[in-house]
Structure formats: structure tokens, C-alpha cells
Amino acid sequence: MKLAGIISFPNTSEDKEVFLEEPFCNCFSNPRGNACYENRLVNRCLTHTIFKNKYELIDKKSKLLSNLPHSPKIQLLMILIADSGATKTDWRIVYDKDHIKQTSTEGINPHYQTSAQVTNIMTEAIHLDKLPEKVKYIYFYGAGITSGAKIKEIESAILQSFQVEKVEVNTDILGVARSLCGSQPGIVAMLGTGSASCLYDGKKITHQVPSLGYILGDEGSGAHLGKKLLANYLRGFMPKDLEKKFNKMYQIDKEYVLNELNKGKVPSRFLGSFSEFIHSNIHFPFMHKLVSESFREFIEYYVVPYAEFGNYKVNFCGSIAFYFSNVLSRECSDFKLPLGKIVKSPIAGLTLYHLQLI
Hints:
Layout: E1 2-8, E2 15-21, E3 56-58, E4 64-67, E5 79-84, E6 88-96, E7 99-106, H1 115-127, E8 134-142, H2 148-161, E9 163-171, H3 172-181, E10 186-191, E11 195-200, E12 205-207, H4 213-216, H5 222-235, H6 240-250, H7 254-263, H8 267-272, H9 275-280, H10 285-302, E13 314-317, H11 319-323, H12 325-334, E14 339-343, H13 347-356
Parallel strand pairs: 5-8, 8-9, 10-13, 13-14
Antiparallel strand pairs: 1-2, 3-4, 5-6, 6-7, 10-11, 11-12
């Protein structure tokens, strides 16, 4: 894992982006290293050392990474920002505005996991040193947060896991809106394991078509693509050359699939796992048509209804939107929709959003 951060220095307009290999420097989380950024050598940590006068950032193999003209000023913030889907949770640990660590844990969705299970995921991450236990603020954006009760479940799990002063729990689609649009209005669409959309006025969600989950909805998502693929495979509608490739990779039958859907831990995650096979075989007309039809359904149900409120750009987020962006762009063009951003994950934009509020 790598730390990526932009370091700004006083008395200069120069910003330097640096990448540090783990383990992450204790200076940012351990009081013993608080003096590391004073104008003298006081600590040699696992990752870097800062020398008086030169202020050189050196990795643990003493390879020069960056020449620092001035000592950075450190003011610890200790903020956790999380974007959680059914498959994984992306975290950003903000030690200060210039030093940000990234990590990921198992996906969290209160519709499929109990509060105790969510707590276990978080506490395990703390025990593995992926996440700090003591922080000031936690901003959590997640899938399956569809009611006040679900918000309280996540809040409870967070409060049982962390020593934290303030917790804010929101839906994943609001996180995507804040990430892609910031303070500007726009249509926001999410295509990952699940799917969702909303109309955002720059501050809040004003209109939203219900997603309904992988059973009744989630058109355009990884789960929807997997569901369509498996249905065609089990019914014998898949082209023979493609079916041969599928059998070689998965070796599954109807009983296995139905058992995963009826008794599996997270059925939507199981369905979404087949999107990799779809992507690697998108050159087959059968696959291209399957993806195009799924995206067309999503646009018809989750994007077109917002057109009556204005001619806003449509911004997409999620692994499915990102990796199938060529097909998605073409479908948007067919609907004459003004296309905005297409990004894989909202976490970087969310981090910038919250840093700007500090």
C-alpha cells in the first residue's frame, strides 16, 4: 500500500506529490514523533527522516524521494472519511491537510450485515493497524443506508469501534454527489455493485428515483450485469464459444448459482463478481449488447426522469461506469445527455470536499 499526498511548503508556491511505501510513519499518529517536523533531527522513523537545513524526504532505503525547500507545518486533524459499497470500503485517514493515508476494508451494507458484524469489520481493521482507534471526526458514506434506523446502526458500530468526537453518516449517493459536483448542481449516477442516481442542487439531494436493490432494480450495475449473464448462461442462450470460456473459468451449475442467491452472504456481491468476465469479453457482440441494454435501462429509469428539472450534466461514478465507459458514453450520446465526469471511486473527491470545509 502507498501513501499519496500533496505537501505544500511556506514561502513557496511549489507543491510536491510524494509516495511513501508502508509502513506509515509513526510521526503522524504517535506522540513520540510529534517533534519530527521541528527544525532539527529528532526522530528516525520507519519511513522517512527530515534533516535540519536540507529537509530531505528519504525512504527507508535512503533513496532520495523529494527535496523539501522548507519544513512543512503540521497541525493534526485526524479525520476518517469512508466510502462503502457492497464489495469494499475505501478509507482516507487525514492526519492534516498535507498528509493523507489510504486503506480499504471489507464492504459494509446494513441490509446484509448486523451492527455486530459491521463493528467486527471496523475493530479488526483497527487491530491490523489499518485504521487508527482515536480520531476527531468520522464521515461515513455507505450503501444500504436507506433510513434513519440504518444510520443509527452504522453510528452505533462506529461508536463501539472508535474513540471519536463527531460522527456523520450519509448515503453513498450523497457522497458521490459531493465528490463529483462539490457545490455545483448536477445529475449524479452510481454504477458499482449496485446502482443509484439523484439530482443534486450543490448542497443537498432534491430528487431521487428509488433503486430498489438487486432483486427489483439496480439496472446498469455489476449485479444487474451478472444477473443477465447468468440467466442467459443457465438458459443456454450464450454463444457456444463464449460458453466454453465461461465454463473454463467458473465451472458452476444451476444449483450452485441458486444456492448463492438464496443462502449466500451477499448475493449482490456474488452477481457483481461476473462483471470481470463480461469486461474481458466485451468484444463479443453478445456481451456488448448485454451491457448496452443494461445501461439503456438505467438511463431510462434513473436519469431521464430528471430532465424535466433542467439540462444538467450527468456525472457517473463506480467501477462499472469506469471500466465500461466507452459503452456508457455511447448510450448517453444516444439519449442526447450532456456527459460530465466518469470516475472509478468518489473517495478522492470526498476527501477534497471535506478538506475545503476545514
